[in-house]
Amino acid sequence: MAADKVLGRILMVDDDEDVLFAGKMLLKKHAQEVTIEKNPQKIPFLLNNYQYDLILLDMNYTDDTASGKEGIYWLEEILDRQPNAKVVMITAFGDVELAVKSLKIGAMDFVVKPWENAKLIETLKSAQNAESMAAKQDVEEESQEEGPMKGIVGSGESLREIFSIIDKIAGTDANVLILGENGTGKELIAKAIHERSKRKEKVFVNVDMGAITESLFESELFGHKKGSFTDAHEDRKGRFELAHDGTLFLDEIGNLSLPLQAKLLTALQRRKVSRVGDHKEIDVNIRLIAATNGSLHEMVEDKTFRQDLLYRLNTVEIRLPALRERKEDIEELAKFFVKRYCKKYDKKSKQLQAGALAKLEEYAWPGNVRELQHAIERSVIMCEDQFLRKEDFSFLRTEASDRHDMAFDNYNLEEIERKVIQEALDKYKGNISKASRELGITRAALYRRLEKHGI
Ligand SMILES: Nc1ncnc2c1ncn2[C@@H]1O[C@H](COP(=O)(O)OP(=O)(O)OP(=O)(O)O)[C@@H](O)[C@H]1O
């Protein structure tokens, strides 16, 4: 960051173009980079594709002028995606109640329009330097958690092995490839490596390769020069440059097409990049961590992933097991999330009953830890009681419950047929046409069977 520019990269979202213009004029004197956006619907795309140090978010949009609901909605969206985002709200109405609500949700601060320039800059500076609400909360939670890696819950054998690998490699600059299904914690592990590395004071730049379009790949990763293509309104640094001296995390690396793999490989081999439209080469010093939910080794065999690129990425390989392969961690994770969400939603502390835990341990968790986290969040919100029971997780279909639905007292075919027909009739409240369609027989065939079974 240049010495006179005390603020980093700022995203400002407001549907009033005059406010955006005034904001940009002021902020660009103090910030490394200022992006303005009129349409809040673009927020998810921007967050997926760019890194911001601060987000200045308007509370009211034309759809819903004075309630502030849209601003709160977008604040929650941002924090869901990036719990550590530093968001400062802008309100034209000085509505204290709403501002307080936004602070409770996790905004760092708020400013009232029309703002005083010096005050706005001061507010942004303190927001940038303060710890985000999520980070504070994590620290609070973590300080109560025993365990070798703060913030990473689980003490089963597979995770302990991963912790020991992290301990060994974090301090080196070795490239790391993290393999695992969606939601297993690949990003969390990547951050843990960064936080234990010599680069921990520097930036961690996350790039979702799955979200970058083929045509924007080079501009996103290597940057562009103003005027190099239609939308290149100003010079822009790419992610490699932004990650200089820090860690570059390339997520969903398996999604890259072969031509893009070749471009990425060249940049990694040369440790230099050129912005699109510029021949100048820029040295980049990065530590590379990549992740994928696919099997790169199989992709190499199928010739859809370059072997030389795989070898460049996987100096160290960490395989994160699916949650169903490490059921021993479910209890600890579930309790951790119960605590987190009781706190977040201001609910009295709750306990998981044994039946509920058994249900969680039996479920296959195709979405892994992320799915468990959401299941617990949902049950904490819905449950008024002090105990979380298995019924609070009835939305999870376990194999046993599926088996139970299909359970028969015996295997006598005649009786099974009678029971199935009765169930189909009950389901459609006696409607013969619908029941016969579901049973896969004609109406006449169903009538014959009703007669046979005396239904
Ligand atoms: N061991 C863990 N302890 C606490 N939280 C965890 C753990 N593992 C995963 N999580 C949480 O689960 C969610 C998903 O984790 P993360 O984003 O790291 O997974 P991922 O493998 O990178 O997912 P994807 O492949 O979908 O990008 C996050 O909210 C993360 O904080």
From TrEMBL:
Q: Which residues form the Sigma-54 factor interaction domain?
A: 152-381
Q: GO molecular function: any one?
A: sequence-specific DNA binding
GO BP field: phosphorelay signal transduction system; regulation of DNA-templated transcription
Question: Domain named Response regulatory: which ranges?
Answer: 9-128
Region (Disordered), start-end ranges:
132-151
User: What keywords were assigned to this record?
Assistant: ATP-binding, DNA-binding, Nucleotide-binding, Phosphoprotein, Transcription, Transcription regulation
Cross-referenced PANTHER family, in alphabetical order?
ALGINATE BIOSYNTHESIS TRANSCRIPTIONAL REGULATORY PROTEIN ALGB, TRANSCRIPTIONAL REGULATORY PROTEIN
Protein name from the UniProt record: DNA-binding NtrC family response regulator
Species in which this protein is naturally found: Aureibacter tunicatorum
